[in-house]
Amino acid sequence: MKYFASIAAAALGLAIVPASAHAQTAAPAQATAQPSVGATVYDAQGNEVGKIESVANGAAVVFTGTNRASIPLTSFGTSPKGPTLGMTRAELDAAAAQAAGAAAEQLRARLVPGTDVHGLNGAVLAKVKALDGDNVVLTTDKGEVRVPITGVGTNAQGVFIGMTQEQFDAAVSANSATPAQPAQPAQPAQ
After folding, report:
1. What is the pLDDT of residues 123-165, one digit of tens each?
2. Cα–Cα nearest to 18, from 58, 92, 70
3. Residue 110: in which H helix or E strand, if any?
4. Residue 78, φ and ψ in degrees, nearest 5
5. DSSP label of 187
6. According to a count of CB atoms within 10 Å of the terminal CB, is the N or C end of the chain lower?
7. Who contacts 84 (Cβ-Cβ below 8 Å, separation ≥6)?
8. Terminal CA-to-CA distance of the chain, rounded, Å?
9. What is the rounded distance in angstroms from the CA atom of residue 124 to the CA atom of residue 115?
10. In this predicted structure, what is the pLDDT of residue 3?
């Protein structure tokens, strides 16, 4: 069994949106505004909350410097300084952390043995064999692999990895070609 972070890195880069970007609610601040990418967002007292990284599908992703949160456009108000929210940076960070924790619990609950793991094209790439700490052990016809839980997510099909069948197979083959190195015993201090 091998641990390959390349799958996690590819999955994160291709398909996974941070959990904190899904379950954020914010109280409306003032009149509705149409925030734009790059704009600084302020709280009701005029303190910076974060910057808008993207706007799509009726929501803006605000980066606080710590977390990213998807905020409905209807939650933004306006001020002379720019777009506003009815939350401070600390409140938004706390809400994002709470949402991320809840999403992580929901993901772990879905990672039960026998669960199909889908790829980008919808194909079943592997099955969940077990959870092992912060990793999930996947079983395929080519063997077993360990993937960080942060490298998997959920969508309408269930559990997924942000890779195609070809990318997944190539990663498994490349990882299997490198023999596992046994752990070296610790050397006593001289």
Report:
1. 899 999 999 888 998 888 887 888 898 889 988 889 999 888 8
2. 70
3. helix 89-110
4. -130, 155
5. P
6. C
7. 29, 30, 33, 41, 42, 43, 44, 76, 77, 78
8. 35
9. 10
10. 40
Rounded distance, CA 63 to CA 12, Å? Answer: 17
Counting the structural domains of the chain, the total is 2
In contact, 142 and 176? CB cutoff 8 Å: yes
Read off the amino acid at residue 56: A
Residues belonging to the chain: 190
Per-residue pLDDT, 11: 38
Prediction pTM value: 0.59
Asked whether residue 106 carries a pLDDT value surpassing 50, the answer given is yes
What CATH number does residue 173 fall under?
3.90.50.10
Tell which of 107, 130, 153 closes a domain.
107
